[in-house]
Amino acid sequence: MKRRKYGNTKIDTPDGRFDSRGEYARWKDLKLLEAAGEIKSLKRQVKYVLIPAQVGKSGKKYRGSTYTPDFVYLENGELVVEDYKSLITAKEPGFVMKKKLMLKEYGIEIRITHG
């Protein structure tokens, strides 16, 4: 089995597949907060279109760009888009660009959590 870039281990749980043990632990914490009524409408893996697919003048097709955060929920009536990231992956240029595009396109600042 090939080692993952940052050493995290995907895990299968009764709640689905998670990219790391930390992400799964955060999911369980959020489920408890939802059960206590502190957050509402908890969802996983909601896809946001950042740049739609396009066709250039030459007819060449360009794929769009999407962002799929780990968790989305309502807290105090406000939408929270949350990603569980390590300190290293939170600084990757691709993720930083997606954070900027989420703010530009949706007015949403991504909440980053880590263990």
Short description:
With 115 residues, the chain is of the alpha+beta class.
Number of E-state strands: 10
Poorly predicted tracts of residues: none
Tell the overall outline: globular
Tally of separate helices: 2
Order of helices and strands: EEHEEEEEEEHE
Which structural class fits the helix and strand makeup? alpha+beta
Radius of gyration: 16 Å
Helical proportion, percent range: 25-40%
* Mean pLDDT across every amino acid position: 91
| Adjacency order of strands in the biggest sheet | 3-8-9-10
Biggest β-sheet: count, sense, barrel? Answer: 4 strands, mixed
Strand content: 25-35%
Report how far the terminal alpha carbons are from each other: 25 Å
Describe the 3D structure.
The chain has 115 residues and is of the alpha+beta class. The protein has a domain at 40-113. The protein contains 2 helices and 10 strands, in the order ββαβββββββαβ. The strands form 4 sheets. A 4-stranded mixed β-sheet has the order 3-8-9-10, with helices on one face. Strand 9, helix 2 (93-106) and strand 10 form a beta-alpha-beta unit. The longest helix is centred in the first third of the chain and has 15 residues, at 21-35. The model has no long low-confidence stretch (mean pLDDT 91).
Keywords:
4-stranded mixed sheet, 10 strands, alpha+beta, globular, 115 residues
Question: What does the secondary structure layout of this molecule look like, with pairings?
Answer:
Layout: E1 11-13, E2 16-18, H1 21-35, E3 40-44, E4 48-51, E5 54-55, E6 61-62, E7 65-67, E8 71-75, E9 78-84, H2 93-106, E10 111-113
Parallel strand pairs: 9-10
Antiparallel strand pairs: 1-2, 3-8, 4-7, 5-6, 8-9
